[in-house]
Amino acid sequence: MRSLKLAGLWQAVGWSYVALVVYFSLNPSPPDLPSFEGSDKLAHLGAYAVMMLWFGFIYLPGTRLLVLGGLFVLLGIVLELVQGVTGYRSMEPLDMISNACGVCLGGLLARTRLASALAWLENRLYGGGDPMSHP
Q1: Residue 27 half-sphere exposure, CB side, CA atoms within 13 Å?
Q2: pTM over 0.85
Q3: How many helices (H) and strands (E) in the chain?
Q4: Which DSSP state fits 32?
């Protein structure tokens, strides 16, 4: 885990985001998306990339982050399967792939200096050393 003063808060924000993804995935009236072709796939990719990256802000690359990534891929598959049996949403295999690609993208970004964003924010709020020099 990264050295964060507000780790509990950041985890709560992350799990709240996961809950929002579940809610919007199963809501009979999903949010309106732009009307260009593939916009829904881009939304899936972005939602899961943000989800994975957020936890990359909290956890260092390693087993815990890898397990979370696997769970998020599984979540994307399960939510699509559940959508298929709701009667008001449809199951789309390409959405599953977009979700998984988003997790991979977020996981890759979590291995860059970007993953120090929360440490940088805390440094600005509380003072201290430069967390960007120690991702």
Answers
A1: 11
A2: yes
A3: 5, 0
A4: P
